[in-house]
Amino acid sequence: MDMDRVYIENIEDGQKVVSYYMIKQAAIKTASNNTKFMDFTLMDKTGEINAKLWDCPEDAETYIEGKVIKIAGSVSIFKGALQLKINKLRLSSEEDNIVSMDYVKTAPLESEDMYQFLMNKIDEMADEDIKKITKAIYEDHKEQLLYFPAAMKNHHAIMGGLLYHVKRMLEMAEKMTEVYPVIRKDYLFCGVLLHDIAKIYEMDANEFGLVKDYTPEGHLLGHIIQGIKLVERYSEKLDVDEEKSMLVQHMILSHHSEPEYGSPKRPMIIEAEMLHFVDNIDARVYDMSEALSDVAPGEFSDRIWTMENRKLYQSES
Amino acid sequence: MDMDRVYIENIEDGQKVVSYYMIKQAAIKTASNNTKFMDFTLMDKTGEINAKLWDCPEDAETYIEGKVIKIAGSVSIFKGALQLKINKLRLSSEEDNIVSMDYVKTAPLESEDMYQFLMNKIDEMADEDIKKITKAIYEDHKEQLLYFPAAMKNHHAIMGGLLYHVKRMLEMAEKMTEVYPVIRKDYLFCGVLLHDIAKIYEMDANEFGLVKDYTPEGHLLGHIIQGIKLVERYSEKLDVDEEKSMLVQHMILSHHSEPEYGSPKRPMIIEAEMLHFVDNIDARVYDMSEALSDVAPGEFSDRIWTMENRKLYQSES
Amino acid sequence: MDMDRVYIENIEDGQKVVSYYMIKQAAIKTASNNTKFMDFTLMDKTGEINAKLWDCPEDAETYIEGKVIKIAGSVSIFKGALQLKINKLRLSSEEDNIVSMDYVKTAPLESEDMYQFLMNKIDEMADEDIKKITKAIYEDHKEQLLYFPAAMKNHHAIMGGLLYHVKRMLEMAEKMTEVYPVIRKDYLFCGVLLHDIAKIYEMDANEFGLVKDYTPEGHLLGHIIQGIKLVERYSEKLDVDEEKSMLVQHMILSHHSEPEYGSPKRPMIIEAEMLHFVDNIDARVYDMSEALSDVAPGEFSDRIWTMENRKLYQSES
Amino acid sequence: MDMDRVYIENIEDGQKVVSYYMIKQAAIKTASNNTKFMDFTLMDKTGEINAKLWDCPEDAETYIEGKVIKIAGSVSIFKGALQLKINKLRLSSEEDNIVSMDYVKTAPLESEDMYQFLMNKIDEMADEDIKKITKAIYEDHKEQLLYFPAAMKNHHAIMGGLLYHVKRMLEMAEKMTEVYPVIRKDYLFCGVLLHDIAKIYEMDANEFGLVKDYTPEGHLLGHIIQGIKLVERYSEKLDVDEEKSMLVQHMILSHHSEPEYGSPKRPMIIEAEMLHFVDNIDARVYDMSEALSDVAPGEFSDRIWTMENRKLYQSES
Amino acid sequence: MDMDRVYIENIEDGQKVVSYYMIKQAAIKTASNNTKFMDFTLMDKTGEINAKLWDCPEDAETYIEGKVIKIAGSVSIFKGALQLKINKLRLSSEEDNIVSMDYVKTAPLESEDMYQFLMNKIDEMADEDIKKITKAIYEDHKEQLLYFPAAMKNHHAIMGGLLYHVKRMLEMAEKMTEVYPVIRKDYLFCGVLLHDIAKIYEMDANEFGLVKDYTPEGHLLGHIIQGIKLVERYSEKLDVDEEKSMLVQHMILSHHSEPEYGSPKRPMIIEAEMLHFVDNIDARVYDMSEALSDVAPGEFSDRIWTMENRKLYQSES
Amino acid sequence: MDMDRVYIENIEDGQKVVSYYMIKQAAIKTASNNTKFMDFTLMDKTGEINAKLWDCPEDAETYIEGKVIKIAGSVSIFKGALQLKINKLRLSSEEDNIVSMDYVKTAPLESEDMYQFLMNKIDEMADEDIKKITKAIYEDHKEQLLYFPAAMKNHHAIMGGLLYHVKRMLEMAEKMTEVYPVIRKDYLFCGVLLHDIAKIYEMDANEFGLVKDYTPEGHLLGHIIQGIKLVERYSEKLDVDEEKSMLVQHMILSHHSEPEYGSPKRPMIIEAEMLHFVDNIDARVYDMSEALSDVAPGEFSDRIWTMENRKLYQSES
Questions:
Q1: Are B209 and B106 a contacting pair, CB within 8 Å?
Q2: Cα–Cα dist A197/A133, whole Å
Q3: Are strands C81-91 and C68-78 parallel, antiparallel or unpaired?
Q4: For the whole model, what pTM was predicted?
Q5: What is the ipTM of this complex?
Q6: pLDDT for B34-54, tens place per residue?
Q7: Over 70: is that where the pLDDT of E164 sits?
Q8: Which one of A289, D202, E90, F280 is CB 3.0 to 4.6 Å from D223, fit for a cystine?
Q9: F76 contacts C30? CB cut-off 8 A
Q10: Burial profile D202-221: b = 16 or more Cβ within 10 angstroms, e = fewer
C-alpha cells in the first residue's frame, strides 16, 4: 500500500503525486472565469497541504471533512507555499484498507495508556477530598479525554494532545515536588489534572481531535471560568471541603498567571504559581521542538509570532 | 445635644473639642518611653480623624470598634493631618440618646426605598427567565443589600452604597434604552442589578457598611467569579434557559471591560458594553463630586491617584 | 426601476448582475499582459464592491468618482472577497431618473430636521455666553453640517453622520443631566455640539459626505486643535467670558480622554468627563450595531480590529 | 559682609549659623503641644533649606515670601535632611545692603545679553513671514522673558532659565544646520524661539523667576496649546502666510514628540523632529550636569526619577 | 549563653532585652537638640532591627560594621516598626565565645558540601569543551563562591546564597532533562552553573555575604555582560570550540528572557529557555516560602512589591 | 551607453525597457502549470525591481547574485508594485564596459576619504589610551569599513553606509562639544567611532555592501555585545586603563538607550547619553530625507512603520 502513499511532509515542488489523504476542509468556489472549482485542505499525520480541483465534479458534495480520498495530481509553488493540483480523485473504499489514524496527527503515546497513567496518579493521592473530585471528573470525561487536543492551533493541537500535555506536566510536577518539598503534591497534581479540563467545553472537536471552532460558551466565558464552574458543581455534589474546592478553583483561575492572558487573579499559593510554570514549560518545549524540527544545523527558524517574534537556532555542536 | 457635638468635617487646628464619635479602629500601643497609649480612628457621618489617648486607661479593652464614645480633647496638626489628643473619654450610655446612624456615612436615600424601587423594576421585566433569577437573588440577599457598601474604599464606600450605586445605574440604563432601542432593556437591567451582587461575598462588612477586609474567597476568586457562580447556582435551581444564563454570566464577567481590570473577556454583546459604561459613569460622577466637594471656585483639587493622577478644577462661572 | 437594481448587500458568488452604482474610486491600470484595464470601487447605500473592466474603453476618463453608472457583469470570489467583472457599462443619463441619494450611505434622519433639533436645544440654553458662541458657530457652518460625516472610516462615516452623532449624543446627555443634577447642562450640551465641529476643517469631504482625505492642517494639527482655535476666534469676536471660553476649549481638548488618543490633557471638570462618555457610547452603539447587522443568531462576528480585536455575539434569545 | 553669610550649600550637620536668606515659603502652624510655630523654606543662590522657628513671634505675618531675613540658629538632621532651628531672626534693612540677586538662582548669563543675542538671530532670518511673527512675539514679551524660568521644577527652573534654555538650543540648532543642510534654518530657529514661549502664560512666576503654581489655563490647556493660540493670534494680526503659520504651530504642537508627553501629533517635518532633539539635548545636559555636580569621582549619584530612575557615574579618569 | 541571647525574630513591643548582635550598619548623627547619638542596624541569623544609642559614647568609632556587640535596652514601636533603645553596650570579647556564624543569615546547607556537589556534576559532563570551561571557572572562583549571596536584596541574599541557588536549580534541571530528553543536559547544566557567576564581580560583598554596594563595573555593565566577558576570556585561554562558547554566552545573555529585565536577546535555543525557567522557579519558591513564613493559616501576607503587588495566602487545609 | 540604460527609479507602468541591472537575488521556481520560471530582484544605484523570466533558460544557473545582466522586457503593475517581465537577457561582457559601482547604492562620499577624515580625528585625540584603542580597531578593520553598510535595511543600508553614518555623527558630535564644554570630546568621539563597529561581525555583507543575512553570532549576541568583546580584547592587548575601557564598553552597551531597543543599561555618563542623541539624529535625518525624496509639495508621504506609523509632510513654502 505504501506505493500509493506520499507523506505530505515529503512532497516537493514539481512532483507528481498519487496518494490517500484525509479532507480537513472542503469548499466549492467560483473562479474569475465563472467556473466552479473545489478548494481543499488535505492532511495526513505528517502535515497539511492546500489542493485545488479545477473541474468541479457532479458528486462534489460527497467530498467532506473527515473523509479519506485517493488523488492523483501535481505540485507547484503558489505564493511561497506548496499547492496540489488534483487531476483525479475518488473516495476511499473498504478495499483500500484505510486506517483513519494514519491521516491524523496524534500524540506519540496511546491515549488509553496515558489515561491509565493519570488515573494511577490520582489513586495515589493522600487527600481524600482532592482525590474524589479529580477522580470523578476524570471518570466522567474519559470519552472526550481520549481524543481531545489541548488547543485549536499552537501547542498540542493534535488528537490526544490534552492528555499528552497533562501527562508530561504531571511528570514534571512530580520531579518538582522532590526538589521542593514545600510544594504540596496533591494540590499541584490536582491543578495539573484539572487546569485545562474545560477545554472539552470550550472547543467543538470531532473524534479525530480536529477543532472546528470554539463553542459559544467557550467564547463568552472561556475554559478557565468553565473549569471553575465544573469544579464548583462537583464540589457540591461530592461534598468537598469548601476551602479545598476554593483553592482548586483558584489554581484554575490563576494558571495563566497574568490578567492579559486570561487570569484576573495572580497565583496566591505556591502550587498555583508552580502550576503556571509546568504548564508553560511543557508548551514551550513542545513548540520549540516543533519549530526546530526542520531547521538545518547552523541555521535559524523563521520568526515565531507566538514567541515574541524571535527566531530559534539549530546549533551545530 | 448639639452642644456636645462637633462634626469632624468642622474640626480645626488648635480647637478644643467635646463630642461623641464612633470608634472605627482602636489599638493599644507602646510609646518610645515604654508607656502604653491608645490609638484610635474615630468617625461620624461627616468624616474620620486620628486620635491618641496618651494615658492608657484600665478599661482600655472596652473601647472597641463600633462603640460610640464621648471625648474631650484638643486638636493639632501632625505630619500634615489633624490629630485629636484625648484628655477624657467614656463610653456613651443610654441617657446620651445616641443614634448610631449619626455616626456612619450613609447613602442619601433610604435603603428600604431603594430596594423597593429596584424590586419594582424587576417586576416590570418582560423576560420571565431573567426576571425570576434576578428576583430570587434580590429577595435572598435583601438583608445584606440594605447595608452593604459598593466598595472598601473609593466610590460608594458607605452604608447602603451598593444599592445606591445600582439604583443610579438603573436610572441611567433606563434613559439609555430610550435613546438606543437596540439595547435590550431586560438584559441591561439584569446586568446592572447583578454585576456587583457578589460584593456581598467578596467583602466582610458589618451592619454599618464598614468593610474590615476582603474574605479569603474574595481575595482568591473575586466578586466577578463569585457572581458567576451565584448565577449558575440559581440558574440550575430555577431552571433558567441556558443561553440566557450564559449571557448574564458573560455580562458579569466582562463588566470591567479590560483584562487588567479583572475581566478576562471583553463585552461581546451590546448590553454588556453598556453595562460597563453606566457602571463607570456612576462611579466617576460620585468620585468627582467627592473630590470637588471642598475645593474653592477657581482652584484645583489635589492630584487624584485613582483618576490617572489628574487634578480637578472647580470653575468660577 | 427595481428590475435594474441589485443592492450590493444582496450580491452573491456566481451571480449575473445588471444594475446602477455610484463610482467611489476609479483607476486605469496595466495588466501583466500589458493591456490596460479599469479598477473600480462601486457603491450604493447598502455597501461597496470592487469591480474590474478588463477591456479599457476609449472614454475611460469619463468614469469618475461621484458618477452613477449602469453595468452588466458577473460575480466571483477573489481572495476571499466578492469581485464584480464588468462586461458592459455606460454612464447613467437623465432618462434613468437616478436619485443620487440612493447610492450614498446616509444617516437615518433628515439633516435639516437634525439641524433644527440642535438649534432648538441651543435656544434653550440659559447661559448667554455659551449660547451665543455655540449658536454662531452652528449658524456659520450649517451648509457643511448638513452633509458632513463624523469620520473618514469607522463610526458615522456616512452623509449627515456628524449631525446624527451629535444629535444622539445630545439626547443621551440630556438624560444624563436628569439622573445627575450635578452636571451643568449648558456646558455638557456645548461640549457635545462643538467637540467634533472642526472635523469640517480636518477632512476634505464632498457633497455626499465622502471623505477623500484629511486636509494638511487636519494632518498636522487635527480637529481637536482646530476646534480650540475656532472657539478662540469666536470667543474674541463675540466677547465671551474668558473662563467660559477656556472651559469649552478644555472640553474639546480633553474629549478623547487619553493622551494616546489625542487628548494631551485629561478631563478636569465633570462635564468634560461626561462628554467623553457620551461620545464613546454613541460610537460604540453605532459600531456594534453595524458589526452585528449581518450575523445570524447563535453566531459570532469576525474579529473587530477597532474593538481590541474582539468578536461580537448575536444571541439567540 | 561675608562674615554674616553662610551659603546653604556649605551648611553641615551640627553647625551654628548666622546669615541672611530669602524666604521662599513661610507658614504658621500648631505643634502637638498646641503652641504655634513657623515653618520656612529659606533659599540663597546656592540652594534651599527647611527651617523652624519654635516660638512664633508677634510679627509673624511680616515674614513673607520674597523677603530677605537675617537669622541665627543651629543645624541638625531630621529624616535624612538638614534642618535649621532658628533662635533669632529679623527682616533685613537698608543698612544690610542686601542684593536680592544673591539669594536667587539665576542663569549664568545676563538676561539682557541673551535677549539681544536672540534678537540678532531673528534679524538674520531670511523668511520675512517667519521673522516678523517671531520678532513681534519676542518684543511683546521681553519683560517676562528677562526673568522667566523654563520650568517649575526640573531643568532650568531658575531666573532667566527660559532665555538660557532657548539660547543654548539655538546654538545647537545652528551647528545642526551646518552639518545637515536639508534642515531649513529659519523654521528650526523659529521653532526653538517659540516652542516654550507660552510657559509665560502657563506658569505664575514672580520677578525672581520663582513659580508659585500653574495658572488655571496652564493646567487646563497647557503651554503647547497656549503657544499655538498665541501664534494663531499674531499670524492673523501680522497677516502671515497660512502654511507657514500652520507649520510653526505644528512644530510647537509636536515638540514633545510623543502623545504621553503632551504632543498629540508627532513631528511630520524634519525641523519639528530636530526641534525635539535640541530641546531634549539641552534639558539633558543641564540635568545631568546638575545631578553630577556634587558626586565624587568613582561614585554614583542617587537614583534620578526623571531619568527612568537611573544613577549617573562620575568617572575617575 | 542562651540567657544572654534574644533572637531578633522573637523581640516584642515593650520587652527588655539583653543580648548579642552583629552590627550591620552604624552611624553617628545629631539630634534636633544638637546632641550626638548613634544609629544602628543590628542583625542575627533570624533578622534585623533598628537601634538607637542616645548618648554617644567616646569610643563610638569602635562600633563598626561586622562587629558583634552585647547590649541592654528596651523595645518600642516607632512608625509601625520595632525599635531598640540601647541603654548599655560593649564590644564582645573572647570570653563571650561568640560564633560569628550565629549572627549571619546563611544558606541551610554547608557551602563546602554544595561546592563539592556541583563539582561532581561538572565532572560527569560528557562534552569536554563545556566541562573544561565550567570547571576552570568554578575552581578559580571557589573562594568567593563559598560565601557569596545571589543578590543584594530579594531572593538568596544570604551567605552562601549563590551556591544554594545554583544547587537547587541544578537539581531541578536534572529532573527536567529526564522528562524532556530533547534538552541537552551539558548545555543546561553549564548555563545553570555560570548564569550568575559574575555576580561575584557585580557586587561588593564581605566574608559574611553582606553586600555593601554594586561595583562600578557592576553598575555600568552588569553581571550578564560581565559573565559573557568572563566566558570569552576563559574560552580563548582554554581554546574552547567557538560555537560552544557562543552558545554559553547566549545562555547567559538571554537568561533574564526579556529586554526590560536585562536580556537584550531572548532565548533562541531550548536550553536557554529552560535555564530561564529553572532560575525563575527557584527564586519564586524561595521568595514565596519567605513571604509566607510568618503568616497564620487562613490569613494573607502583605502585598509583595516584587510579585506584582499580590498577596499570598496561607491555606488552612 | 546611456541608450541602453533605464534607471529603475524612472521605470513606469506600461514601459518597454532595455537596460543593464545587477542581480540582487535570483531563484528558479515552478509555476502552477508546472513549468519552470526565474524570479529576480534586480537593482541599480537608484532602486530595485522584481522581474520574471517565464521561460527558464538552460543556463539559468549562471544568473546569480552580483552579476550584471542586460535585459529587454516590459513593465506592468502586480499587486500595487511595478514588475518587469523579461523577454530577453544575457550576462554583461567585457565589451559592455560595465562599472559595477553604477549598479550599487553607495554613500555620497568616497569611502577612502571618509576613512581618512576619521583617522585624522583619531590622531587629534588627547587621551592616549582612548586614541590607541580606537586607532588600532580602525586600522585592523579598514578593509571592511570601506564597503560595510550601517544596516541590513533602514537607514544607511548602502555601500560605505557605516563610514558615512559615523562621519556625520562625528561632525555633529564636534559641534556639540563646542556648545557644551562639559562633554568630554575624546570619550564622545570614541563612542561615535566604535558604537557600531561590530556590525562588521553581526552582518554578513559582500563587497558591494549588500547584506545577505545576520551571522549566527550576530543573531545570538548582537553587535552591542560583540562590540564590547572587541573592545575588551583590544584593551587587554594594548594595556588600556581599566576604567577607560569600562567606560567605552558602557557607551557601546547603552547607546540604544532603552532596554527594548537592545541596551540593558541606560547611559550613566553624559557622553553615553549624547552618543545616543547623535546616533538618533543622523538616522532620523537620513530616513526622513529618504521618505520625503519623492513626495510633492503640499503632499504627505505614506505611513512610515519605523517612525511610529506617522506620515511626513512636504511643505509648499
A1: yes
A2: 13
A3: antiparallel
A4: 0.91
A5: 0.88
A6: 788 899 999 988 888 999 998
A7: yes
A8: D202
A9: yes
A10: bbebeebbbbeebbbbbbbb
Which among C13, C75, C313 is the nearest to A216, CB-wise? C313
Amino acid at F192: V
- Measured between beta carbons, which residues in chain F are less than 8 angstroms from residue C34? 14, 74, 76, 85
Q: Which helix (H) or strand (E) holds B272?
A: helix B270-292
Per residue, the 3-state secondary structure of chain F, as one string, reads CHHHCCCHHHCCCCCEEEEEEEEEEEEEEECCCCCEEEEEEEEECCEEEEEEECCCCCCHHHCCCCCEEEEEEEEEEECCEEEEEEEEEEECCHHHCCCHHHHCCECCCCHHHHHHHHHHHHHCCCCHHHHHHHHHHHHHCHHHHCCCCCCCCCCCCCECHHHHHHHHHHHHHHHHHHHCCCCCHHHHHHHHHHCCCCHHHHEEECCCCCEEEECHHHHHCCHHHHHHHHHHHHHHHHCCCHHHHHHHHHHHHHCCCCHHHCCCCCCCCHHHHHHHHHHHHHHHHHHHHHHHCCCCCCCECCCEHHHCCECCECCCC
* CB-CB under 8 Å, B30 with E76: yes
Cβ <8 Å between E219 and D13: no
A-chain residue closest to F32, CA distance: A76
Q: How far apart are CA C260 and CA D298, in angstroms?
A: 41
Interface test with B, best of C177, C295, C300, C313 (most B CBs within 10 A): C313
Q: Can you give the pLDDT at residue C4?
A: 67
The answer to whether residues D145 and D193 touch, using CB atoms and an 8 Å cutoff, is no
Asked if E220 lies within 8 A of D313 by C-beta distance, the reply is: yes
What is the per-residue pLDDT for D294?
Answer: 83
Chains touching D (at least 3 CB pairs under 8 A) are B, C, E, F
Of A74, A311, A313, the CB nearest to F34: A74
Measure in Å the smallest separation between the Cα of F289 and chain C Cα atoms.
18
Residues near A131 by beta carbon (within 8 Å), at least 6 away in sequence: A122, A123, A125, A186
pLDDT tens digits, one per residue of B261-314:
999 999 999 999 999 999 999 999 999 999 998 899 999 999 999 999 999 999
pLDDT in the model for residue D1: 39
Do D and C touch, 3+ Cβ pairs within 8 Å? The answer is yes
Is A34 or F242 the better-scoring residue by pLDDT? F242
Which residue numbers of E have CB closer than 8 Å to F's CBs? Answer: 216-217, 219-222, 224-225, 228-229, 232-233, 243, 246-247, 249-250, 253, 259-265, 268
* pLDDT recorded at residue C2: 47
Amino acid symbol at A93: S
Q: How far is A112 from chain B (nearest CA, A)?
A: 33
F85–C216 CB contact, under 8 Å: no
Question: pLDDT grade, residue C155 (50/70/90)?
Answer: low
More confident residue, B154 or C37: C37
Quick: pLDDT tens for F119-174: 999 999 999 999 999 999 999 999 999 999 999 876 678 899 999 999 999 999 99
Chain E and chain C touch, per 3+ beta carbon pairs within 8 A: no
- Which of F32, F76, A202 shows the shortest CA–CA distance to C36? F76
Distance CA C309, CA A237 (A): 39
Mean pLDDT, rounded, for E220-245: 98
Question: F202-238, pLDDT tens digit by residue?
Answer: 999 988 888 888 999 999 999 999 999 999 999 999 9
What pLDDT score was predicted for residue F128? 97
Q: F32: pLDDT confidence band, cut at 50, 70 and 90?
A: low
CA distance F16 to chain C (A): 10
Query: pLDDT tens across E172-191, in order?
Result: 999 999 999 999 999 999 99
Nine-digit cell string for B92: 456613651
Q: Which helix (H) or strand (E) holds D8?
A: none
